[in-house]
Predict the 3D structure of the following.
Amino acid sequence: MRRLGGLYILAFLFVITGLMFPDSYYVTVVGVTIFTNAVLAVSLNLLMGYAGQISLGHAAFFGLGAYSSAILTSRYGVNPWLAMLAGLALSGTVSWVLARPILKLKGHYLAMATLGMGIIIHIFFVQADWLTGGPDGLSGIPGITVFGWPVNTDLRWYWVFGVLMLFCIWVSLNIVDSRPGRALAAVHGSEVAAQMTGVDTASVKAQIFVVSALLASVAGSLFAHQQAFVSPESFSFFFSIELVTMVVLGGLASTFGAVFGAVLLSLLPEFLLVFEDFEVLIYGAILMAIMIFLPDGLFVTTSRLITERLRGGEAS
Amino acid sequence: MALLSVRGLEKHFGGVTAIAGLDFDVEQGAIFSIIGPNGAGKTTLFNLLTSIYTPSAGTVIFDGHDLTRLKPFQIAALGVTRTFQNLQVFLNMTVLENVMVGCHLRSRCGMIEAAFRLPSVIREEKKVRGMALEALEFCGMADMAERAADTLPYGMLKKLEIARALAARPRMLLMDEPAAGLNDTETVNMSSLIREISASGVTVLLVEHNMGLVMKVSHRVLVLNYGELLSQGTPQEVQCDPKVITAYLGQ
């Protein structure tokens, strides 16, 4: 129970908030953004935080899922769930093919390679007019129905994305606390020692790259249906960087840290709107301050302080 | 037949010859020590035996398999594991988790089962935890299981590496300077631990500078000098070999 405690608390908050404030803009509209970002951050954290492999191209898989769903449903009238599966197949294939050559690289070189991958896929979204609608994007994407329940209001999307986020967190917590999860952490800790304990490091890195791409792809598919419109802008290099920031800000190698980072970075722009022109400036200053004073991340540092305080209390 | 037999092993780094045509055999169940002055090529030899380096020439046959063709994780799967001179503990985990990684080869669970935490995963986790605790127990560290690895003192980290290696139930364990940096009491403990490991049926290859320990525990000793085999035999034979005395003390 202790393993999933955080998940239960989050699920409880999610349900209560949805029931108590069904009409609030912050809950339903911003909530969906938060949940989408949380899914992406949690999936990226599996790769970055636990396995220690940076990716500056995570938004690309979000985009592959979104465009697969958008194109198949709006142009060819394919069932959204089948389109989502097609998106998963595409993201899975792309990530699987790229994983081994890319993850052979380390440090800055890996950052460059994933950056290149993200940019290439983004350029494809922009340039392949005939398929993706180019920079103008694709509109007219139909909504979805979950077991005969049409998802046609902001509140309903709130429930759908919230459940997806909880699912993602559950998967992440499961992986972390398992044989493959420990193998990933071992790769992060010492790759040579991981190999000498029998971990096929190339394979386990490739596997987690694919898992994180698949989770991002599902989020992308739902995102396309929820927005009813996709354009390349949503999947740019800058969004990839924002996702990395969420993971680092919350605290690497902590699933709830990633969630926390996603919540913070999704809410911050909303609160900073009052500063109008200075919004971006203050946003940047806050990020810098957190990284300088809390290099282990906001969530990780805070929860450590709380645990220490509690332990100290028991001892005295 | 010997468990490990090395034939014509060579390693060059550019123009530098680190290992020059080495032949030796290690019998099953032995404590086999490799000694030599600094820079003699001892750690290089370990890195060649575990395929962290690729040899320039020669073969390393372990139980009928040529290790030079395999990757480190495949070598581990054959039952060869090692500890490191410059510690390679997973500092991002607890002590127990470190050793649980050591059980990697004795468990099966894959990524998909893990992601959905199927009942088989829960059963296996329990089993792995037990195996890891057993290895910690063997090294006298069971009481530290839940501590974060980065809070352990140096001597304990050395033991932790050994526990992690033993958790894989190896047939042969390569130990790279297990007593380096340990105080006298810890060194005595280490030598009895090495004996216990050997008694449990594991063949031990030992690189060590502490001659007292080497001469006390080893069945056979190999002396390396500038990558070449200088002498080989029982501890007594090696100690009396004039070539060894010359190499260590100078003329």
User: Anything to note?
Assistant: The beta strands of chain A are 138-139, 145-146, 149-150, 229-230. Chain A touches chain B through 30 residues (CB under 8 Å).
